[in-house]
């Protein structure tokens, strides 16, 4: 099992075997960019390059970028998702569209309309859900939405209206439901959580109290939803009871730092958090079940995303 | 291709000089400077204007998607005026001058090569006044020179982009007002004339207002003031006849009192060479330019930005002349070592909001330089510099080189002068550099070559000095900053015009 960490400020990936973090490699992505996340499938990683309207295709085994595919000017490339072994969708938040990219040929298909400021994807029940933050000039201009696409044809099936603002992080439960983190507005501690049924394409649950600008959300188990924030660290919500096991005001502070740049779960249920340091080399923490640091792995400047793959 | 006639003013020189010219990228330039005497006063004035189109085609780097692109919104217009009144320069014992300057720069901000800003504009208006007086005060056999100066500098910045490639539209207005004054007594003779000393003080206030500041911070205001003293000996009756120099300065700053110094010795070494050893410290408060720079999605000045400090720098330099056949030459070497505390750099936070920040830097380096001259007008020179400037982070070993600071630079140049003609060429090397604050994504070093030819002539009581200059002679396109493309080969044709004596 291989971990892939996106280091945003230094525009690199840190790649290491989870079983042996000392065997780390740094993969430079290019002289410019602001990548914040990646998608992986086997040996390939797709990294949208943010301010650079392009997506880097990385061979993780070789540890190098094999091609950089240009996206439409003004893309703002953020968020990606593998549809199959050759096609990945990349969100263009600057253009309110998503682009299908053939990662093997390095070609880009016709853009697909989405909502305002698309930046995440999730797949469930044969459908791909594009998470639209509904931002105008980086401020919420309405509640978040999901654009629903057929996973096979990429045909648009509909739109899901959410009840929270600034929708971003998304994760899929074992029963297929989508859990979407609505970050809210800076400084207003207005984070909320939406629950969406993929079959009916409707919001079936909405919960408040998720604190100041929560970002990443992941399932560690069916009863344990972890979410992170630069403002409080890692908190925990139980979807079965609809209550907080660890509220934002009592969040875990990995490494003694009441802040986290993200949280991730590896395929074996291991918990990882990203140390929020952007002006110096940072690290990722491997946490135990109590969200205490078990080990620390050095990475690059400003880790903002972590994914896992096997090859 | 065209010519730019460049007028250069010369204090005490010809009363009227002019410049006209054109160049590549639609460059136009003109300037006139003149001076005259009015009774006991010297009056000077100048006006200048320049214009540039700036557009060109280039190939996009494959790491940002490749393909052909056009550099647009790269035009600029600049105008400036200058007026000066002062005492005549040929009156010993006293000189004073008042100068007023005004300028306006209006230009497009083309943005990054892969994310062009087609509508971003910048306007900078600057007005400044400066007063300077120098007087010799009779004090025994050695007169003491009194120098006083006062100045005001007001700048207004306007950045606007209704449709940036990324981020929200912006229309930011900022202003910076700087007031400074200083007084120095120099030439004070001590120890029976064997030591010459000076003492003085200066002060500066900087007030910044900006739309991009947090509304809770109406303005950034900073007051710096300092007193200083310096002394230098005459050549001492010791081996190598060393000259000692010392200087001390104490500044009052928002960060508290700061002392900086310089102690140096300069000595003559055999065969006409010189040796120089210095230990110094330095203090530099933030300037208006440190606070205003637009990059990335957002920009926010830093009201807590601290002054840069060099706690202690040591420098050793030596130069020796030599002969090689008909050539006379000089070889010089310099090594230095001195860390910088709170060096000001721009960097983004996790939201990609850019601000000036203070970082500590480890700084070491050396320079080698050599030049040869031939009586028939030929001159050849070469230089190489290695400068290490690495981030110093608490609790860690010095890490990577600062972003966009090449560790190795250098070059060669040659010129030939004969009668009224001069031919020159040079090639410069800019070494590899990192575009990020980490030792990754390295940009390769590159060479660029330039060529110049100039002449002098006289016609109808006027002197003309035409010159042609070609930059990046071999159409080198390597950019210093990755996202700012270079146009390759550019040409300028200049003509200096001045009234013949």
Which labels suit this protein?
heterodimer, A: 311 residues, mainly beta, four-stranded antiparallel β-sheet, 0% helix, 53% strand, B: 501 residues, two-stranded antiparallel sheet
Characterize the structure shown.
- The complex is a heterodimer of chains A (311) and B (501).
- By secondary structure, chain A is mainly β.
- Chain A is 0% helix and 53% strand.
- Chain A has no helices and 31 strands.
- In chain A, the strands form eight sheets. In chain A, strands 8, 9, 10, 11 and 12 form a five-stranded antiparallel beta sheet that branches. A four-stranded antiparallel beta sheet of chain A has the order 3-2-1-31, with no helix packed on it. Chain A has a four-stranded antiparallel beta sheet with strand order 4-5-6-7, with no helix packed on it.
- The model of chain A has no long low-confidence stretch (mean pLDDT 96).
- By secondary structure, chain B is mostly beta strands.
- Helices cover 1% and strands 65% of the residues of chain B.
- Chain B contains one helix and 29 strands.
- In chain B, the strands form three sheets. Chain B has a 25-stranded mixed beta sheet that branches. Chain B has a two-stranded antiparallel sheet with strand order 4-5.
- In chain B, a hairpin with an 8-residue loop joins strand 11 and strand 12.
- The longest helix of chain B is centred in the middle third of the chain and has 4 residues.
- The two termini of chain B are 32 Å apart.
- The N terminus of chain B is likely disordered.
- Classes of the chains: A mainly beta (311), B mainly beta (501).
- Chains A and B meet through strand 7 of A and strand 9 of B.
Summarize the structure.
The complex is a heterodimer of chains A (311) and B (501). Chain A is mainly β and 311 residues long.
Write the layout of secondary structure elements.
The complex is a heterodimer of chains A (311) and B (501).
Chain A: E1 2-7, E2 12-17, E3 25-28, E4 39-41, E5 44-48, E6 54-59, E7 64-70, E8 80-82, E9 87-92, E10 97-102, E11 107-108, E12 112-113, E13 118-124, E14 127-132, E15 135-136, E16 139-140, E17 143-150, E18 156-165, E19 167-172, E20 178-182, E21 192-197, E22 202-207, E23 217-221, E24 224-229, E25 233-238, E26 243-246, E27 262-265, E28 271-274, E29 281-287, E30 293-301, E31 303-309
Antiparallel strand pairs in A: 1-2, 1-31, 2-3, 4-5, 5-6, 6-7, 8-9, 9-10, 10-11, 10-12, 13-14, 14-17, 15-16, 17-18, 19-20, 20-21, 21-22, 23-24, 24-25, 25-26, 27-28, 28-29, 29-30
Chain B: E1 16-23, E2 27-38, E3 41-52, E4 56-59, E5 68-71, E6 76-87, E7 94-108, E8 111-112, E9 115-116, E10 121-137, E11 144-161, E12 170-190, E13 195-210, E14 220-233, E15 243-253, E16 256-269, E17 273-284, H1 288-291, E18 298-299, E19 308-324, E20 327-338, E21 340-348, E22 353-373, E23 378-392, E24 408-418, E25 421-430, E26 446-455, E27 457-459, E28 462-471, E29 490-499
Parallel strand pairs in B: 18-22
Antiparallel strand pairs in B: 1-29, 2-3, 3-6, 4-5, 6-7, 7-10, 8-9, 10-11, 11-12, 12-13, 13-14, 14-15, 15-16, 16-17, 17-19, 19-20, 20-22, 21-22, 22-23, 23-24, 24-25, 25-26, 26-28, 27-28, 28-29
């Amino acid at each position: 099992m291989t971990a892939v960490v996106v280091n945003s400020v230094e525009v690199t990936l840190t790649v290491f075997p989870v079983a042996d973090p000392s065997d780390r490699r740094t993969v430079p992505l290019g002289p410019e960019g602001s990548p914040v996340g990646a998608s992986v499938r086997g040996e390939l990683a797709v990294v949208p390059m943010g301010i650079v309207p392009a997506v880097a295709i990385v061979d993780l085994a070789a540890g190098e970028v094999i091609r950089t595919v240009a996206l439409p000017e003004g893309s703002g490339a953020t968020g990606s998702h593998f549809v199959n072994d050759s096609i990945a969708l990349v969100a263009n938040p600057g253009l309110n569209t998503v682009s299908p990219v053939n990662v093997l040929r390095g070609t880009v298909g016709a853009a697909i309309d989405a909502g305002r400021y698309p930046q995440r994807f999730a797949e469930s029940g044969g459908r791909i859900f594009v998470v639209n933050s509904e931002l105008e000039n980086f401020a919420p201009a309405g509640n978040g939405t999901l654009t629903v696409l057929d996973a096979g044809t990429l045909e648009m099936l509909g739109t899901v209206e959410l009840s929270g603002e600034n929708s971003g992080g998304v994760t899929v439960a074992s029963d297929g439901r989508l859990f979407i983190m609505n970050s809210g507005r800076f400084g207003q501690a207005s984070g909320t959580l939406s629950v969406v049924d993929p079959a009916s394409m409707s919001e079936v649950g909405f919960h408040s109290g998720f604190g100041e600008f929560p970002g990443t959300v992941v399932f560690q188990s069916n009863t344990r939803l972890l979410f992170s924030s630069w403002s409080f660290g890692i908190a925990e919500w139980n979807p079965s009871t609809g209550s907080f096991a660890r509220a934002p005001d009592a969040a875990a502070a990995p490494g003694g730092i009441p802040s986290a740049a993200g949280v991730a779960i590896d395929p074996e249920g291991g918990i990882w958090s990203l140390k929020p340091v952007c002006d110096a080399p940072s690290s990722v923490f491997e946490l135990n079940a109590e969200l205490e640091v078990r080990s620390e792995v050095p990475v690059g400047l400003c880790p903002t995303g972590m994914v896992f793959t096997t090859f | 291709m065209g010519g730019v006639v460049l007028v250069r003013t010369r204090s005490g020189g010809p009363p009227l000089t002019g410049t006209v010219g054109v160049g590549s990228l639609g460059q136009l330039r003109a300037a006139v400077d003149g001076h005259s005497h009015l009774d006991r006063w010297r009056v000077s004035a100048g006006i200048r204007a320049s214009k540039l189109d700036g557009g060109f085609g280039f190939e996009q780097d494959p790491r940002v998607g490749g393909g052909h692109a056009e550099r647009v919104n790269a035009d600029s217009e600049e105008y400036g005026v200058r007026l000066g009144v002062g005492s005549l320069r040929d009156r010993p014992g006293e000189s004073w001058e008042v100068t007023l300057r005004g300028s306006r720069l209006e230009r497009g901000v083309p943005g990054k090569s892969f994310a062009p800003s087609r509508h971003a504009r910048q306007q900078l208006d600057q007005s400044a006044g400066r007063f300077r007086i120098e007087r010799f005060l009779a004090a025994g056999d050695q007169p003491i020179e009194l120098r006083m100066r006062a100045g005001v500098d007001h700048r207004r910045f306007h950045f606007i982009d209704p449709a940036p490639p990324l981020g929200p539209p912006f229309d930011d207005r900022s202003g910076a007002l700087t007031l400074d004054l200083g007084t120095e007594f120099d030439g004070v003779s001590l120890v029976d004339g064997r030591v010459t000393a000076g003492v003085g003080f200066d002060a500066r206030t900087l007030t910044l207002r900006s739309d991009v500041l947090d509304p809770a911070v109406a303005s950034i205001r900073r007051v710096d003031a300092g007193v200083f003293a310096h002394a230098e000996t005459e050549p001492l009756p010791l081996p190598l006849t060393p000259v000692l120099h010392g200087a001390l300065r104490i500044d009052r700053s928002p960060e508290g009192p700061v002392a900086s110094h310089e102690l140096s010795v300069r000595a003559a070494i055999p065969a006409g060479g010189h040796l120089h050893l210095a230990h110094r410290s330095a203090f530099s408060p933030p300037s208006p330019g440190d606070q205003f720079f637009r990059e990335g999605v957002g920009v926010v000045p830093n009201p807590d930005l601290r002054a840069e400090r060099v706690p202690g720098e040591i420098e050793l330099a030596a130069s020796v002349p030599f002969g090689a056949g008909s050539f006379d030459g000089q070889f010089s070497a310099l090594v230095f070592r001195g860390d910088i505390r709170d060096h000001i750099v721009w960097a983004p936070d996790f939201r990609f909001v850019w601000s000036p920040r203070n970082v500590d830097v480890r700084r070491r380096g050396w320079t080698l330089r050599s030049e040869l001259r031939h009586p028939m007008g030929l001159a050849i020179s070469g230089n190489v510099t290695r400068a290490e400037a690495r981030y110093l982070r608490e609790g860690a070993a010095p890490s990577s080189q600062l972003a966009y600071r090449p560790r190795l630079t250098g070059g060669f140049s040659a010129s030939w002068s004969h009668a009224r003609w001069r031919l020159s060429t040079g090639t410069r090397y800019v070494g590899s550099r990192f575009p990020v604050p980490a030792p990754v994504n390295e940009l390769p070093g590159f060479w660029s070559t330039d060529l110049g030819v100039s002449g002098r002539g006289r016609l109808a009581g006027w002197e003309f000095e035409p010159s042609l200059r070609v930059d990046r002679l071999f159409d080198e396109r390597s950019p210093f900053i990755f996202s700012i493309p270079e146009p390759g080969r550019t040409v300028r044709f200049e003509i200096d015009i001045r009234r013949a004596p």
